Sequence to fold (829 residues):
Amino acid sequence: MTDAGGDADGDPDSDTGAAPGDAADDAAVRDGAAPGESGGSRSPRDRAFDALDRLVAASATERLLISGSALLLSVAIGFVLILVAGRMTSCESAAYSLLGIGFCYDPIVVYDSLFLGAFGDFLANPLNGQFATTVSETTVLVFTGIAVAVAFKAGVFNIGGQGQLVFGALASALAVYALSGAVSGVVGTLVLVPVGLAVGAFVGGIWGAIPGALKAYADANEVITTIMLNFVATSFALYLASGPFKDPESFANQTRTLPEFTLFPQPLFPGRTDASLLALALAIVVAVAVAYLLRGTSFGYDVRTSGIQPEAAEYGGVDAARTVVASMALSGALAGIGGAVYVLTIAGNFQTGIPDYGFDGITVSILAGNSPVGAIAAALLFGVLKSGSIVVDVGTDVPPELVGVLRGLIVLFVAMPEFFRMIGQRVDVRDRFGGSRDAVATDGGEEA
Amino acid sequence: MDTDRFDRRKFVKGVGAAGLVGLAGCTGGPESGGSDGDETEASTPAADDEDTEASETEASGSDTTNVGMVYATGGLGDGSFNDQAQTGIQQAAEEFDLSYDESEPDSVSQFSTYQTQYAQSTDPDYDLVSCIGFLQADALSQTAPDYPDQDFMIVDSVVDADNVRSYTFKEHEGSYLVGQLAGLLTSRSFSAGESSTAGDSTNVGFVGGVESSLIAKFEAGFTAGVKAANEDVDVQTTYTGSFSDPSAGQEAALSMYSSGADIVYHAAGNTGAGVFQAARDEGKFAIGVDRDQSVTTDYQDVILASMVKRVDTAVYNAAGATVNGEFEAGTATSLGLADDGVDIVYGTELGDQIPEDVKSEIQSSREAIIDGEISVPDSPE
Fold:
């Protein structure tokens, strides 16, 4: 896995220890933890460190198993939560009974709806409305997920995905509307959809490059600047959508509705205008392309090295400042495309109160271990949960807040092992917190 | 850290026991009864003395009317608009053979999904889908034609479709009355509770939420009422840009009070809580909106009156008409003073202290509006 990108001329991983996302083998080299060899008489702290090492060294199959069991565990805990909540509310007849005690909410129905509801009646009609919702949610989240992942790879924490997405969406809606008078029909679709995406990418990219430049040249903390720029973006978009560019026909603060032909074609979902498998395909292509960009190009090399060890990267001839700006611009551009896709598939215009795709992108990225391709799977999990919670909300009495808790539990549990892995890779816990190191990598480490 | 004393098994046992006790101690549960009668196909709980009363309600038959409620973003518990709609459906559920299901979308883009969910549901088959709030209009105008056999209703907007009944309100009429109240009281020395008006004040305030033509109706009516009471009183107007930002409401109201306003009226949802707080801080008055906010909030001591908007009436009427088979789809109604759609209610604590001559003057305006003698503008000049 180490040299999968083919950087024969000095992949940084071999020098610096571990890069995010591919550290399974490298970390084993560094820490030399022999899996499963922890002695029985060791202190709990050492055992915890061993477990962390073990986690860092876990193979892909093991990680999948860990995620699976974490998912099951979160469901088990959620099960109890639903039962407890079902006792604390009042209802006329029990929805579920266990050991002779009646409960107001039925956990089995809840989880059935939460996971399977997202696919609707998939066997009877794979192209049903609920699945369409899942597809459209997933599509946008893939973009914001990769956006955060790219910045992460460069060692920059982009919390500004939401602002970049909002501006990308707004710019895309305005540009496409402005041009929609000039062309129409199939030609209009062929011209305006790419234009909309490009404008979204451009504006989102600019908005991402600003905190990047502030970090690179003025040493401003990007966490602060990106959060602040989120507020600027949402407020300024609200101003534009409620003032200069407001749809005069509508009560809502929104821009004019785009004509049908300017939207993403949805060849497969009849009657639904808000899901496009083409957009999803585009998201997947972009994810793969970004993965290649990071792994197989010199730009990706720069990004990853400055993410892992900025000083070493500088020494190796990487212009760290420029790399930070470029990766933040790329990150913002991806979030901006997400916004454009949101406008051109789901919304059909720009409307204030865009859901928190940008923030969810952070979780998607962590869930995926900052891997662009992994973001597809993580975004799908999010899409399923979002769409499924609508089914729960409509089909049961369970309050939406409780559904939110269940969703949060799942994400937390699935992301936690990955999160610990990231910590384990980056921080040498033993050096920092003490602990004996009796499994030393004298053998040069094992390739897992 | 001596870990030998820490026995994992004991810990797990303890947690388990505590959990069971906690579970058993929960006071609610199916037997205690409640208003949510909508989960109808519940299995009867197994042999449990307490639960024997929880009889299986036979409701899966076709004679029960099912209503799906899609609330506005912001959801239930807003103490205002959505809660008022819920009151209406709860009242209908009590009086008719009706069950309902509620859902709370959290973004505008979800409206069409929720509407579609109800429309295509066959178990249960919803007889009516209630869409609360004008933001649902765009989604509904796309959803409704796709489900021609499904009845919909929408509050606060007009959707032109054969299967949609639209309800809007003449907020300007109710706002006129509270405007008149503000104009009359600020022109004289009036004190009630801890608050008072200066007597020589020449302005009152209006705090709006997000600027839109809907909220503009409140502003227009209020201004007209103030001017009708006293031509010399000015109205300061601010829009905070949000329905859920009490601190912005407080800032706006504080600056109004400090520049001489005695009374501030808000049409800003939860932002209004800040207006009330500012009134209390400054020893001035405020006027509530949508519901009798001297009942639904903790600010009885500053709320002179509220402009109630009977969203509940609209929901109740639509549900009742559906039950009786009299639902008139494809029509639009604007509920004003004459239809009990809007009205003025005096505060529970301060209402009695408002002088009778003020109240009677407002009462005569009320009649004049109903009779059409006063025409209230619905947009600001």
In short: Confidence is low (pLDDT under 50) at residues 1-39, 439-448 of chain A.
